[in-house]
Amino acid sequence: MNPVQLLQQKLKLTPDGVIGPRTFAALRLHWNLTGIQLAHFLGQCEHETGGFTLFTENLNYSSQSLRTVFSRHYPDPLLATQHHRKPQLIANHVYGGRMGNNEPNDGWNFRGRGAVQLTGRNNYSAFSQWKKDPSILLIPDQVATVYAFDSAIWFFETNRVWRHTVDLSDKSILAVSRAINLGNALSTATPNGLQDRINKTLKYQAFI
């Protein structure tokens, strides 16, 4: 089962993997959210996961992509060539030594997972404490399965993203998108995939 189906099963719904009116209504009650808040949440999650299909960060980058996506970490073309299509090496190089990643393989162990890509030992640890489940640090893959959406709820709450979900205007969706994609709702930069985020958020307006 994928994370959407696991969530539906938990809510005693038919686990068809589709978030329709019934699942939307059940999620509102489960998370105690307004319809507008849930539309924002699901729209962002759907975009971040490529339509609820990818819940673990894909780090299978070519050397050329590494020089583009992680230019700060790969100023040396030779290093990028050495790490070409080697996800574990890439994760440990890009994420190692920061975000609480202190052990040799932490970058890989605590790579992005979940509906909004929880990343780094610090975030996994904080989420583990919030969820009161220490096994998350021992089996971090849980964040890509049973805790995929819980970790996203934690992110919205911890980073006070809900305060930007005032309505379904483009302005509100932009602020939420900046908070998710750029880490700062007040940024003046354009978030990646903004129009898709808008489209996916507004799709849920019909269920409110």
Write structural notes for this entry.
The protein is mainly alpha-helical and 208 residues long. The chain has helices at 3-10, 21-31, 35-48, 63-69, 77-82, 87-95, 106-109, 121-131, 135-138, 148-158, 170-181, 194-203. 51% of the residues lie in helices and 0% in strands. The longest helix has 14 residues, at 35-48. The chain is globular. The chain starts with a helix and ends in a 5-residue tail after the last helix.
E-strand count: 0
Task: Tell me the structural class.
Answer: mainly alpha
Largest sheet: none
Strand content: under 5%
Task: Label the overall shape.
Answer: globular
Topology of helices and strands:
Elements: H1 3-10, H2 21-31, H3 35-48, H4 63-69, H5 77-82, H6 87-95, H7 106-109, H8 121-131, H9 135-138, H10 148-158, H11 170-181, H12 194-203
Helix pairs in contact: 3-12, 11-12
